[in-house]
Design brief:
globular; 6-stranded antiparallel sheet; Kinase-like_dom_sf; Rossmann fold; Phosphorylase Kinase, domain 1; 7-stranded mixed sheet; about 775 residues; about 35% helix; Serine/threonine protein kinase; alpha/beta; Transferase(Phosphotransferase), domain 1
């Protein structure tokens, strides 16, 4: 960063300017601080160009393109005003070097880093291309390196492939040495394949330290790009073929950005026959599908160190992924850390710009206590924001405690002499799943109350609830409210699959860790979210337990599967995975798909009986399970009847009546009211709420314990949203209901056999049977 010049303004568009990050023909890029204290890269068009309609239109399109990008590998747009007297746009500041600077200073990158770099940039291009746009200037200078992955920047020449308003025949758009042959020839149209070619050039440069078509006079460079073979000498063998494919002269022969991302994120070796390892293959993948979402351990379960949280000590592989600082070589990690720390010396915002009268920051002499004055708080807030910007986040400040009771704050008022952090709860508290939402709220509050009652607590905790009513249309706004509260460092929830999917992007954009307790959709683990953690197994894992129960406990020889289309993806994941498991085991199976419009299950049962089924699995929800249950009872069906957690609902009991008797349910939820291992939790729950713990209360309690222990393991200056996400993904915790450990790449729960339980309908109620087996007993 260069200092401001005398001609530069001190403030612009509500931002305090701190220095110059760069300048070009159109304008200047400043390092600025927003009114909220966040560091941003502020790009401003110079006054003389702002009067030119063409330049203003280009800037307007750049802002519009940046606004449409939600990929985690694109520096997110914070705000923009293309219509201002001096048009400007602000993106989140990334305190890391450009790829060009990194290679010039530290040389070529190792193979593992190259794979991650290429895969993440390809993912960014995939989103851009899906929006009908092309970047047209992918080059090392437009790639920034952060601790959790690269960021693609500068959409100034991004366009629809058919939009030629910026160019004319014979005009080259892009950077020579990193543009495609079609761009080198001055073609009026440059499609997505041109970006892939440019990315191939970028990867070759990052691997060797030189452009693949050399340097020199412009006309010679353009000729070599259009006609000569690329120089790939020194590109690691693991990626040489992929890079070579990107650099095909014929655009039709290049991979798409999606295929490129898949190739560079190549999956692990084939699964061995061990049943636990077989969990890797939970569902058939389509040609463009992701790798299996759940990492499955070997014979060693997560370290049993209850109740403390422990960081994993296994060395990061060479091809570590974003979210793990080891994806970059140590010198670059050190460089980014130094630049982040340099933010501590930057001026803060004016006192008048935020209301911090209730906020404090610990002084060096008292790391966890009240202390420093207002000015020191503002200074440190600014520096910490620079650290958080590597993951797109911002500093979490500490405010006044929330009130007691079940309205907004924790039941036990925390000590106001300690720094305060908040755990948010995003839940359905008034809709169809309000019982689950209420149970999760109580589990979270109980953990927070217990923590605040500790005499050795070094900080205080509060709970902030947000109700989406189970409506996915409301979920993003609820997420925005929690994100806007800078005291919230982590969020538990949402309650359902649809609300989780609807709100994930909002949390991800803010690098706010989101830990889901009850949703089970597999798609949640393959969205590429940097901040999502899945604290339960996905629905595709449950069929392994259904298989073990039916073939082992129930001794079924031919299993009938009813895939209810009314349950959409949930039913399909259960039925298709179980069908595959049984066929792989050469076990007779009779699958049957039922239309969502059908309410008469008699023909379905006829087909199952004709196929010789002696047991039935229903892949659907409680309401239509009751229809099948009554038909089975009417036929005096003697075999086992089973389902997954979608039927573990009191409405199934009331709708099915006596026909519900004997049904077995395999679900990722414990009965904390009767489970021996939850005895202490149940007693505390009864004392606090004068009620029995409901389903998902103890699971939420376990997640809350993981969060607060991980938060306590971080130094005070590192308690930010992005760093907490990283720490959570690296932590393990042996809870009451299950062991918690996550894949560092996806945030998926590591499957170790814990956390799945068997329930049976006995005497008109769901009777808890304990831990479910996942291997077929012999």
């Amino acid at each position: 960063m260069e200092p401001l010049r005398t001609s530069d303004p001190a403030r612009l568009a509500g931002h305090r300017l701190l220095g110059r990050l760069g300048a070009g023909g159109m304008g200047v890029v400043y390092l600025g601080r927003s009114a909220g204290g966040t560091l941003v890269a502020l790009k401003v068009i110079q006054a003389e160009y702002a009067e030119d309609p063409g330049f203003r239109e280009r800037f307007r399109r750049e802002a519009d393109t940046a606004r449409r990008m939600t990929s985690p590998w694109v520096a997110p747009l914070v705000d923009a005003d293309p219509e201002a007297e001096q048009p400007w746009l602000a993106t989140a500041f990334v305190p890391g070097p450009s790829l060009a600077e990194a290679v010039a200073a530290h040389g070529p990158l190792p193979a593992g880093t190259l794979r991650v770099l290429g895969a993440r940039l390809a993912e960014a291009l995939r989103e851009l291309h899906a929006a009908g746009l092309v970047h047209r200037d992918v080059k090392p200078g437009n790639v920034l390196l952060a601790l959790d992955g690269p960021r693609l920047i500068d959409f100034g020449v991004a366009r629809d492939p058919e939009d030629t308003s910026l160019t004319s025949t014979g005009v080259v758009v892009g950077t020579p040495g990193f543009l495609s042959p079609e761009q080198a020839r001055g073609a009026r149209e440059s499609g997505p394949a041109g970006d892939v070619f440019s990315l191939g050039c970028v990867l070759a440069y990052a691997a060797t330290g030189r452009p693949p078509f050399g340097t020199g006079a412009l006309d010679a460079l353009l000729y070599r790009t259009a006609h000569d073979a690329p120089d790939l000498e020194g590109v690691p063998r693991e990626i040489a073929q992929v890079v070579g494919g990107c650099l095909e002269k014929d655009p039709e022969r290049r991979p798409t950005a999606e295929a490129l991302a898949r190739s560079l994120s190549a999956a692990a070796p084939a699964s061995p026959p061990d049943p636990r390892e077989a969990l890797r293959a939970v569902r058939p993948e389509a040609a463009d599908g992701p790798a299996a979402p759940h990492p499955v351990p070997g014979d060693t379960a997560p370290e049993d160190t209850a109740p403390e949280t422990t960081a994993r000590e296994d060395a990061a592989p060479e091809d570590a992924v974003p979210g793990d600082e080891a994806w970059l070589p140590e010198p670059l990690v050190r460089l980014i850390a130094e630049r982040s720390a340099a933010g501590l010396a930057l001026p803060g915002i004016d006192d008048t710009e935020i209301d911090a009268s209730d906020a404090t920051v610990p002084s060096p002499a008292a790391p966890e206590g009240r202390g420093a004055g207002r000015r020191r708080f503002l200074l440190l807030a600014g520096g910490a924001a620079a650290v958080a910007a590597a993951g797109g986040g911002a500093l979490a400040v500490w405010g006044t405690p929330f009130g007691g009771g079940e309205g907004s704050g924790s039941g036990s008022a925390p000590d106001d002499s300690l720094p305060l952090y908040t755990i948010g709860l995003h839940a359905d508290l008034s809709g169809d799943q309000k019982a689950v939402g209420r149970a999760q709220e109580r589990g979270l509050r109980l953990a927070v109350d217990e923590f605040n009652a500790r005499k050795d607590a070094r900080f205080a905790l509060a709970v902030k609830t947000a109700d989406d009513g189970g409506d996915p249309a409301r979920a993003p706004e609820v997420a925005k409210r929690l994100v806007a509260d800078r005291t919230v460092l982590a969020v538990v929830g949402p309650t359902t699959d649809t609300t989780a999917l609807a709100s994930m992007a909002t949390y991800d954009a803010a690098s706010l860790p989101l830990i889901a307790v009850s949703p089970g959709a597999t798609v949640l683990d393959v969205t590429g979210s940097r901040s999502f953690l899945h604290a339960r197994v996905t629905d595709t894992i449950l069929p392994f337990y259904l298989n073990a129960y039916l073939r082992g406990t129930a001794k079924s020889r031919t299993i009938g599967i009813v895939d209810d289309r009314a349950s959409d993806t949930y039913g399909w994941e259960i039925s298709s995975t179980l069908n595959r498991i049984l066929r792989d085991a050469r076990q007779p199976v009779v699958p049957k798909v039922v239309s969502a419009l059908r309410t008469d299950f008699a023909p379905t049962l006829d087909a199952l009986l004709d196929g010789g089924a002696d047991s039935v699995v229903f892949a659907g929800y409680h309401d239509r399970a009751a229809l099948l249950a009554r038909e089975l009872t009417r036929r005096d069906f003697p075999g086992a009847r089973a389902a997954a957690q979608g039927v573990l609902d009191a409405r199934f009991l009331s709708a099915a009546g006596d026909a519900a008797e004997g049904w077995a349910i395999l679900a990722p939820v414990m009965d904390a009211a009767t489970a021996p291992e939850a005895k202490a939790f149940a007693a505390a729950h009864r004392k606090r709420f004068d009620a029995e713990p409901e389903r998902y209360s103890v699971e939420t309690y376990d997640v809350a314990q993981l969060v607060l222990r991980t938060l306590g393991s971080l130094a005070v200056g590192r308690r930010t949203r992005p760093l907490l996400t990283t720490a959570l993904r690296a932590a393990t915790y042996k809870g009451i209901s299950r062991n918690l450990a996550f894949d560092r790449t996806t945030g998926a729960l590591v499957v170790d056999g814990s956390g799945i339980y068997l329930w049976k309908v006995t005497g008109g109620r769901f009777a808890y049977q304990g831990v479910a087996p996942y291997q077929v007993s012999t």
